[in-house]
Design a protein that fits this description.
The complex is a heterodimer of chains A (about 220) and B (about 70). The longest helix of chain A has 27 residues. Chain A is built from nine helices and no strands. In chain A, helix 2 packs across helix 4. Chain A folds into two domains: about 90 residues, RNA polymerase sigma factor, region 2, helix turn helix motif (Rna Polymerase Sigma Factor, Chain: A, Orthogonal Bundle), CATH 1.10.1740; about 80 residues, Orthogonal Bundle (Arc Repressor Mutant, subunit A). By secondary structure, chain A is an all-alpha fold. By secondary structure, chain B is mainly α. Chain B has one domain. Chain B is about 70% helix and about 0% strand. In chain B, helix 1 packs parallel to helix 3 and helix 2 packs across helix 3. The chains are: A mainly alpha (about 220), B mainly alpha (about 70). At the A-B interface, helix 2, helix 3, helix 4, helix 6 and helix 9 of A face helix 1, helix 2, helix 3 and helix 4 of B.
């Protein structure tokens, strides 16, 4: 079974080297790959499916399929390129299957089973409150995000906040900001790009042990 | 939907297709099924979303263990 031993493997090996090692006799290599890619694979499935339970099931299926293909795989393309294709295909298949099923009303027994399953998931130990260090890390990330948002021009900050945190759709944001939907999309695009740059800068500075840069005062009347 | 339109929508709306207008999301799914370039853009935008807005999934050790448990 992959990862059933306590072998210490270097984390800096490429995905391709690790996956080739899976085809050989190297327990633990596949665990490293799963750990390295699970978060993005899960997110890809979630972005297609919009349902955490389905996305996590698909994420498992993706890695099972990848494991089964290990003996035939050749490093002609990047491992991650192939992995993302497998993930998107499986998520699309599941989405189509679910959309087909949802055309009909679920049987009462199915509804009851889903509710029971949800209750069990709530009660499982793995859903216990997260560790203090994980909470702290999330608080730090949230603080960094808030700082980065505050540095954006006001209109970009408003558009991003309404879209990502208040979950308003583009049409509603256009109403609130009294502009066109195209203008909202443009604000979101520029806001995301600026946010990415700001967060990368913060991360770089913090990783070098320097104090975070203080917010620059916003230009009065500056355009977004 | 063509790649240019898909790329523009990812840049403004992010990669969560639930947040896209339904007809646009449906067209995006069709494009993803057919285009490797679209999948690469989608993966990059999904990674960007994780970097920008974090992930409320928390620790994924349980999911990793469950996955590896299916391979034995």
């Amino acid at each position: 079974m992959p990862g059933s031993t306590n072998n210490i493997l270097p984390d800096d090996r490429s995905d391709e080297d690790l996956f080739l090692a899976c085809a050989g006799d190297e327990p633990g290599a596949f665990r490293l790959l799963v750990e390295r890619h699970m978060r993005l694979v899960r997110r890809l499935a979630l972005n297609v499916l919009g349902d955490v339970h389905e996305a996590e099931d698909v994420a498992q299926e993706v890695f099972v399929a990848v494991w089964r293909a290990r003996l035939d795989w050749r490093p002609e393309a990047r491992f991650s390129t192939w992995l993302h294709r497998v993930a998107v295909n499986k998520a699309i298949d599941r989405r189509r299957s679910l959309r087909g099923v949802s055309q009909a009303s679920p049987e009462p027994q199915e509804v009851i089973a889903r509710l029971a399953d949800a209750d069990q998931r709530v009660a499982r130990p793995e859903d216990a409150p997260e560790d203090a260090h994980v909470r702290l890390e999330r608080m730090e990330s949230a603080k960094g995000l808030r700082l980065a948002l505050e540095r954006l021009p006001a209109a970009q900050n408003q558009a991003l906040t309404m879209f990502y945190f208040e979950e308003l759709d583009v049409g509603r944001i256009a109403d609130v900001l009294d502009c066109s939907e195209q203008a909202v999309r443009s604000l979101l695009k520029r806001g995301r790009a600026a946010l990415k740059t700001n967060l990368q800068r913060q991360k770089k500075i913090c990783s070098h042990g320097y104090r975070p840069v203080q917010s620059q005062p916003r230009q009065p009347g500056g355009r977004s | 939907m063509d790649i240019a339109r898909f790329k523009a929508s990812l840049a403004s709306l992010g990669a969560d297709l639930e947040r896209w207008p339904p007809d646009e999301a449906q067209a995006a799914v069709a494009l993803l099924a057919a285009s490797d370039e679209a999948v690469a853009l989608f993966a990059q935008a999904s990674a960007d979303d994780l970097t920008l807005f974090g992930d409320d999934a928390g620790d994924l050790d349980g999911l990793v263990d469950k996955t590896l448990g299916r391979i034995s």
